Every structure is written in C-alpha cells, then in structure tokens.
Amino acid sequence: MALDLTSPLSEVPGIGAGLARGLAGMGLTNVGRLVAHLPMRHERIEALAPIGELAAGATVSASGQVTATRVLMRGRKPRFEAVLMDGTGRLDLVWFHAAYLRDKIHAGARLRVQGKTRRLGPNLQIVNPQWWELGPGEAAGAERARLRPVYPATEGVGSRQIERAVERALPIALPRIEDHLDEGYRRERAMPALAEAYRMMHSPRSEEEVSAARRRLAYDELLLMQLGVALKRAHRQRTLRAPALRWTPAIDRAIRERLPFTLTPGQDAAVVDVARDLSRPTPANRLIQGDVGSGKTAVAAYAMLMAVLSDQQATLMAPTELLAEQHHARLVEMLSGARVRVALLTGSTPESARREVLEACASGGVDILVGTHALLTAGVRFRSLAVAVIDEQHRFGVHQRAALRAKAEEADASPHVLVMTATPIPRTLAITLFGDLDISTIVGLPPGRLPVSTRVVEHAKRGEVYAWVAKKLGLGAVERPSGAQAFVVAPQIGEEPEEAVWSGVGEDVLSEAGDDAAGGGSATAEGAAAGRADAGGGRGGGAASRTVLALARELGAGPLKGARIAVLHGRLKRETRDAIMRRFREGQVSVLVATTVIEVGVDVPGATIMVVEGADRFGLAQLHQLRGRVGRGAGRSVCVLIGSEEPATPDAMERLRALATTSDGFAIAEEDLKIRGPGEMFGERQAGAIGLRVADLSRDLDLVRMAQRDARAWVERSPGLTQPGDAMARRRMLRAHGKWLGLGDVG
Ligand code: ADP
Ligand code: MG
Fold first, then answer.
1. b/e string for 25-52 if b means 16 or more Cβ within 10 A?
2. Which domains does the chain have, with CATH numbers?
3. pLDDT in tens, 625-683
4. Which residue's alpha carbon is at the smallest distance from atom 14 of ligand 1?
C-alpha cells in the first residue's frame, strides 16, 4: 500500500513503534502532521574534519571513538572528561557539572561533537561540546557544514529523534503536498511552492532557504486568516443593511458647532472616514485608534450626532460606570439647549429609572444612550439604532466583538459599529486582531497639551520621590493643602487582601472626607490601617510592594502623613471601585494607591503626579497608558517611574529610560510587542486563538499588510471563494479559522 500524508507514522519505514508512539503522544500521528511540526530554529553544524587538521580557537565538528572517560571531583564542581580519537589525532572533551554523563558516554562509543577548540598542552580540548552518539554503522555526517533543524520536543521525544523521523517522512510527504497558491501567484510574490517550503524548513541548504521558507509559511498563515476575515466582511456587506445617514455641509457644520473645540487634523481625518462609512447603507465596522488623549471621544460624538440628525439613535458603551458617567456628563454639557435626549444606563441605575430609560429607548424617546456592558444584556431595545460606539476596547478582538455585534443585531438592526481602542496598537496586531475592521488612526494630540515629563528613579531614591510628592501635595504646609493629587501605582504581587480588610482603610478615609472636604487631613490611612488591616490579614509590616494596602499604610504612616489616601485594586467590587474613583476625581482623596485597575480614560484634572513603583515589571505600553492618566488638566504633570529593589534586568531600567524620552504611544507599542510578544500584550487566549506559529507579529508587518491586501482582492475577485482553483484555499481557511470566525453560514 502506498503511503501518503494520512499514513500512521508506525507504517513509515525507519520509524519504530516506540518512536511512533512517542510522536503520537505529541499529536504527531501521521505523516502530514509530523511534517507540519516545524523547527523552531536551526543550528549550524560545522563541516566534519579530521581531528589532526583541527585548528585551535575555532568552532569545529569532529567524530571519533571514545577511548577513555573519567569523572573528576574538583570541589563542588564535578567534571566529566572523555578522550576522542579518530586515527588522525586526539581531542579532549570536558564537561563541567556533568557527572551524570558517566552513565551516557562510555569508552568505545562513537561520538560526533561540536564546539570551540582550545590548545591545552600538546592536545586540543573542547569545553562543554555539543555531542551526539552515532548508532552502529551510522555515518558521522556530511562533510559539508549544514543547518540542523531544532524541533519543539518533549521529555520523552527529543529534537534529534524528531529530526530522524522527519527525514523518513519527508520523502513520502513532499510529492503529496498540494499548493493552494498557483505558480503565477507565487511568482508575483517571489515565493516557493508549499512543498518546497517544507523541504527548506526541515532540510535547508542555506540560511536563505530558511528565510524563504519561513516567509512563505508565515504568509500562508496570515493569508488564510485574512481570507476568512475578508469573506466574513464581504458577506456582511452583501447581506446586512444599515441606515445611510445624511452627511451634508450643513450637518457637518451643525455638529462641529456643538463640539467644544476645533478638531485637530488627525481627528478631522478620522471624522471623514467615519462619516463616509455612516453615509453608506452597509454597516460600518471601524476601529478608531489613537494615542492616549488624542481625542477619540470627539470622533465618537460626531458619529452619534450624525445618527441623531438623521432621526436615528446612537449608543456609546464604556467599560466602566465611571467612564460611562463621564461620557454622559460631557455629552449632556455639549448638547445643552439642543433637543437631543441623552440617557445613562449602568448597573447601578435604580430600577425605576432603568425601566424608564428602557421604555424611552424602545419608543425613540432617547436619542443617545450611554452605558456600560449592561447595555448588551439588559434587554435594551432601540426604536432605530444607527450607530453603536464601543469605547476603550483593548482586550476585545475579533471573537468577542462578533458576539457583541450579534447581540446588537438581535433586534434586527445592523448598526454602524465604531470601536475605540484604549491604547495604540502596533499595525500588525491591529490588522490581525481587528482584521475585520477598517482602521482610522488619529495622528497627533490636541494643541497646547503639556507633555507629561517622565523621570526614571532607582529604588534607592524612593524616599526622595515621596518627599517631593509630599511637598507637591502641600503636606505639612501651614496653609491649606495644594489641591494637587497623585496616583501611586504598584505591581500586583500576590493576592490583594479581601475587601473587608481594604474597607478598613477606605471607609474611614471616605467618610471623613465627606464631612470636611479639604480640611486638616485628619483621616489618614495610618490610623485606619493600624486599627484594622492587621486584624484582617496581618500582612504588610511596611513592605513597600507586597500589596497596595501595605504600600498605602507605609505612605500614610510616613512620607505622606496627613494625606487623604485611598486604595484601589481589582478584588474590590465594581461599585466600590467606582465610588473610590469618584471621590478621587472630586478631590476628596488626594492620593490613590492602586494596582493597574485605575480607570482607563477617566479625566482627573487635579491629578498631576503619577508614581509607579516597580515600574520595570510593567509593559511599556501599560506604563504609557498609566502615564496618560495624568496631564489631563491644565497643570504640568510628572510621571515618576521607580525601579524595583532588584530590577528584573539592567535592560529593563534602560527601557524605562527610553520610555521617558518618547511620548509616541505607537512607537512604544511596537517596542513592547517586540519585547513581550502579542500574548503578553493582548492576553494569551486571544493571541493563541489566532494560531500563528510561523508569523511573527513583531517583525512581519510587510507580510501582514500583503496578506490583508491579497485576501481582500481575492474575495473581491471571487466572492465566496467559489471560483475554480479556490477550493483548496477555501477548505484550508475554513479548517483553520472557520469556527472562531463563525463562518459556518458563509461556508
Ligand atoms: P482619548 O483619545 O484618550 O479617549 P479624549 O477623547 O478623552 O481622549 O480627549 C482627551 C482630552 O482632550 C479631553 O479632555 C478632551 O476634551 C480634549 N480634546 C479632545 N480633542 C480636542 C481638541 N481638538 N482640542 C482641544 N482639546 C481636545
Ligand atoms: Mg477615551
């Protein structure tokens, strides 16, 4: 029986039953799967040379027979030594900390070794060489240098074993690998055929072959995904109808007159994109991204007013109650005197008000409904929803938004959807995660914004930082406190205490603050924490970064004595967090000690100081986002990044300094992606679901762009991918992405 891609590995000559079982344990059950298991890198194997011809100080590869071995105990450093002879000379091999090798390398064995030689007396020596044993009759290897694939391996099955199995499977697989891209298509893009790409990946003749193979396979991953996305997009545009909103010069003027400022050129460009979308009868699906503070809200407001001026409704969904309230308040202010009815709906809207809002919304008595996620689940009905804006999305990618949109479409409406990101996203990620969206990027910030000045401070100088903060807050001054406010953010280390412990600090501060706004600052974290926090958890003891509670206590007892300190962290209930944030915004709390839960997008005009403890432990994009919490008022703001007591790496501190010199959120995001990868930035689940194994989003911008462009053109040329010749690409796309893209209906 002829073997093919689906043949079990146990049937492949040269792959024993044991190895086949081991490979099956890794999910590599047949020829096709094994060949799809790609090396993670390649290592250079030097050309084999006779020992007698080896030079000192060079990286060399040799083979021979082990003639003697011994273990030497030198202090606590056992070393294993072996002598290798090949008839032309003698090579000494030394491994440190490797007594275990005595059970692996025996006199009489044939080895191939590689490493850097040095001269030791009359002989050459290699310290800690790479080595592998040659089986009986196994050739020592090619005389030419080559690149050896290094495979993801497991404890039971090593890379070398996988390599040997692939060597056996490859000749079976290669002639049977069909290409979903035809020759002309490949030639235009200077790409190898698929089978050739696999050959070059597993058995490359040069570095160039590895990169050509990588490029083809990475492109394939991206292309198949983008084909799915493009198909979905085309399907949506073909089948869904959205209200085409009126967009005339008069309407444009009317809306601009309502905005409290003149739009920046960046905002203008985004507004034009959006307005053009909304004036079409197909539902817009657009991502508005811009740096922190670039003014995304104004673009949203413009879109919503377009709906209202066409007698339609709009909704704005924010991730937190506080942010929803802030949006609501701004819209109400902006529209005072106009006949536009704006309503707010959040989890804490009282039942009676809630019923009223729902009713008004369904009957058209509300023009703009602002709210939280509650909007999606609360049985909200619109009379005619034309525009839905989702603010400050960050962790929501294609999957989650598909669900949101489905929800919005329940009521038979296909609104235009705008999504606004919380933070700049590198282009590659934006296209991959938000590939089904059109993207507008707001370039530049509103004029007159004072940049936040950023300082990087060693942990040792922490005391000076807080002394400076105390001075800025006017603590201990004879006159009234300055009214300045500060955020202090610390990384979350371990679990934050339960709420009961926290509220010991918080309630005291908050209730006192309620009585006597800016008074003598009698309520301190010190008193409260000393009384109750210990009772609750007995933690802290002044350790700076253990928990934010401990940090608050330390600051309240010492450097920031007399300040009104509140604590905010993720284990607090939503309402409690909102309440605390509100007090802070209203100025009743002067120092907010928090984990990174502090609200995105919330304006606290009085907050001009941001201190981040253990800053080297945060991602750069996250620090940039935190930095964006200050500098929203008129005053000059400062962000102080304090390193950990033992900084993760010297590099980490260096990167913080780089952050201090740039305020370009996009550049920072790119850098962050390089350092931490998409999983860290956007959550493993989301990044993992995309399933990119070869493509590297921190490097492959060209490929990502090309894949998106090609996929869109392809779907345009062949709607539904139904032309002859599309079948294979379509099948592969559906297999890889059909499910999560919900392409069942399309396919
Ligand atoms: P983000 O893009 O971070 O959501 P916002 O929309 O909250 O930014 O805007 C940040 C701040 O800048 C707000 O206080 C807003 O009023 C102000 N702002 C926005 N656009 C302009 C503009 N064109 N001119 C002046 N101020 C602006
Ligand atoms: Mg915003």
1. ebebbbbbbbbebbbeebeebbebbebe
2. 1-42+152-176 (1.10.150), 47-144 (2.40.50.140), 249-279+295-421 (3.40.50.300), 453-648 (3.40.50.300)
3. 889 888 877 778 999 999 998 877 777 888 898 888 888 888 888 888 888 777 666 66
4. 632
Largest CA distance in the chain: 99
**Residue 262 CA, closest ligand 1 atom number:** 23
List b or e across 237-259, with b for residues whose CB sees 16 or more CB atoms inside 10 angstroms: eeebebbebebeeebbeebbebb
In the DSSP assignment, the letter for residue 633 is: S
Write down the pLDDT at residue 450: 79
**Hey, what are 533's tokens?**
């926090």
Distance between CA atoms of residues 98 and 50, nearest Å: 26
If one counts every other C-beta atom within 10 angstroms of the C-beta of residue 354, the result is 17
The answer to whether the CB of 263 is under 6 A from ligand 1 is yes
pLDDT at 58 over 60: yes
Residue 79: other Cβ atoms inside 10 A: 18
The one-letter amino acid code at 655 reads R
> Strand 313-317 relative to strand 385-393: parallel, antiparallel, unpaired?
parallel
For residue 130, pLDDT over 80 is answered with yes
Q: Which pLDDT tens digit goes with each residue over 291-336?
A: 888 999 999 999 999 999 999 999 999 888 888 989 999 999 999 9
Exposed, middle or buried, 525 (CB in 10 Å: 0-12/13-18/19+)? Answer: buried
Distances in whole angstroms, Cα of residue 402 to Cα of each of 307, 379, 720, 742: 22, 18, 19, 8
As a whole number of angstroms, the distance between CA 323 and CA 405 comes to 21
Q: Where are the beta strands (DSSP E) in 435-519?
A: 438-442, 453-457, 485-489
Q: Is the CB of 625 within 6 Å of ligand 1?
A: no
Atom 20, ligand 1: residue with shortest CA distance: 295
Instruction: Provide the phi-psi class of 304: left if phi over 0, else alpha when psi is between -120 and 50, else beta.
Output: alpha
Contact 562, 523 (CB under 8 A): no
Looking only at the bridges linking them, the beta strands covering 453-457 and 59-74 are: unpaired
Q: Is the CB of 268 under 6 A from ligand 1?
A: no
What pTM does this model have? 0.74
Q: Which of 234, 306, 253, 380 is nearest to 722 (CA)?
A: 234
Spatial distance between the Cα atoms of 125 and 285, rounded to a whole number of angstroms: 65
CA dist 22 → 17, 155, 482 (Å) = 9, 10, 69
**Residue 90: C-alpha distances to residues 107, 129, 619 (Å):** 14, 15, 52
Any ligand 1 atom below 6 A from CB of 319: no
Please, what's the b/e burial string for 163-172 (b: 16 or more CB within 10 A of its CB; e: otherwise)?
A: bbbbebbbeb
Handedness of CA 653, 655, 659, 662 (dihedral sign): positive
Distance CA 559, CA 434 (A): 46
Under 8 Å CB-to-CB from 272, ≥6 apart: which residues? none
